[in-house]
């Protein structure tokens, strides 16, 4: 790419509350900002204002479709501030020669911390115990029900990438026995590998979902998996909601087929099955595993570094492979 004396035009789309990218981009580039609360639709805004945008930075999960891309004729790079890219039409980007980057390892520590926090909360029933005390029930009815031991649990991790590896490292400190299922066996990993999720579920007390959402992993946790996990088994999901067959999971939790769940993500966010609200063996969080100031600063720096690298013909920090 030939260098221009004028900084490239970068389009930033974000929710109105997530302004953490604004200043860092406007210092370096000519930046157009549109947010999800705008009264003007993107198909209307883009042709009139963003036809010269060479980069598109997305904070959130805006679906990037063929139609949307058709309004961005100058687009060369799509910068996602998420790790997952299931909201992007990868084939359309490839046809148009658009490069994609994601958040890389920016969120890995915080998501791993959240996964472990959810597991401890479910097994030791911490949120339910908190509600019990606040309602005055300790004084009225005495001791709360027993929780379950975390230490020594057999934990199966689905997706041993950066986040999955960080979860494993943390749980090793609890004396947990770690195994995993992934697209392929990691030769450098010390953990036992199961080539299919059914075997992983059958041989573990806990499943932690850290994998990407693809056609192959959609509803990877179905009723058969939960039945094999068993009545004391726990599912933790910090990946994507559609990794689990949510309707079947609700039935399994209500009927005691599995013992509990810790969920940061859901199939149709922000909608959450109402049946889960009254279950003390379920811990819910609003897709906020990544939501710390440290994570947001990390992803802003990675996004900026990717943009600078792209416009100066240097290797990208966190490219997404489209092949």
Automatic annotation (TrEMBL):
All copies of domain D-isomer specific 2-hydroxyacid dehydrogenase NAD-binding, residue ranges: 116-289
A single GO BP: oxidative photosynthetic carbon pathway
Tagged with keyword NAD: yes
Keyword Amino-acid biosynthesis: no
Domain D-isomer specific 2-hydroxyacid dehydrogenase catalytic: start-end pairs: 33-320
Alphabetical list of InterPro entries matching this protein: D-isomer_2-hydroxyacid_DH, D-isomer_2_OHA_DH_cat_dom, D-isomer_DH_NAD-bd
Any one GO CC term of the record: cytosol
Signal peptide: none
Alphabetical list of Pfam families matching this protein: 2-Hacid_dh (PF00389), 2-Hacid_dh_C (PF02826)
Swiss-Prot/TrEMBL keywords: Glycolate pathway, NAD, NADP, Oxidoreductase, Photorespiration, Pyruvate
A molecular function (GO) term: NAD binding
PANTHER family according to UniProt: 2-HYDROXYACID DEHYDROGENASE-RELATED, GLYOXYLATE_HYDROXYPYRUVATE REDUCTASE HPR3
Assigned protein family: Belongs to the D-isomer specific 2-hydroxyacid dehydrogenase family. GyaR subfamily.
Protein name per its UniProtKB record: D-isomer specific 2-hydroxyacid dehydrogenase catalytic domain
Naturally occurring in which organism (per UniProt): Arabidopsis suecica
Lineage start: Eukaryota, Viridiplantae, Streptophyta, Embryophyta, Tracheophyta
């Amino acid at each position: 790419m030939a260098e221009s004396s004028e900084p490239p035009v970068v389009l930033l789309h974000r929710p109105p509350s997530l302004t953490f990218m604004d200043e860092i981009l406007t210092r370096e580039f000519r930046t157009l900002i549109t947010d999800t609360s705008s009264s003007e639709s993107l198909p209307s805004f883009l042709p009139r204002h963003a036809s010269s945008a060479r980069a598109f930075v997305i904070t959130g999960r805006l679906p990037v479709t063929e139609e949307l891309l058709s309004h961005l004729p100058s687009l060369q790079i799509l910068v996602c501030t998420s790790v997952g890219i299931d909201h992007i039409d990868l084939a359309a980007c490839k046809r148009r020669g658009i490069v994609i980057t994601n958040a890389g390892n920016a969120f890995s520590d915080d998501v791993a911390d959240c996964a472990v926090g959810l597991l401890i909360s479910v097994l030791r029933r911490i949120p339910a115990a908190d509600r019990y005390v606040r309602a005055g029930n300790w004084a009225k009815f005495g001791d709360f029900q027993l929780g379950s031991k975390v230490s020594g649990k057999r934990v199966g991790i689905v997706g041993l990438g950066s986040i999955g590896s960080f979860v494993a490292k943390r749980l090793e400190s609890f004396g947990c026995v770690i195994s995993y299922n992934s697209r392929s066996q990691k030769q450098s990993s010390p953990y036992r590998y199961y080539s299919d999720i059914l075997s992983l579920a059958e041989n573990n007390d806990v499943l932690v979902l850290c994998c990407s959402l693809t056609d192959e992993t959609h509803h990877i946790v179905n009723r058969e998996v939960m039945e094999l996990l068993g009545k004391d088994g726990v599912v933790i999901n910090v990946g994507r909601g559609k990794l689990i067959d949510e309707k079947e999971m609700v039935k399994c939790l209500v009927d005691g087929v599995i013992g509990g769940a810790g969920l940061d993500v859901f199939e149709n966010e922000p909608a959450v099955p109402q049946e889960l609200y009254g279950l003390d063996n379920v811990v819910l969080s609003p897709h906020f595993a990544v939501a710390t100031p440290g994570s947001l600063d990390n992803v802003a720096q990675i996004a900026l570094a990717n943009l600078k690298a792209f416009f100066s013909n240097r290797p990208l920090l966190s490219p997404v492979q489209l092949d």
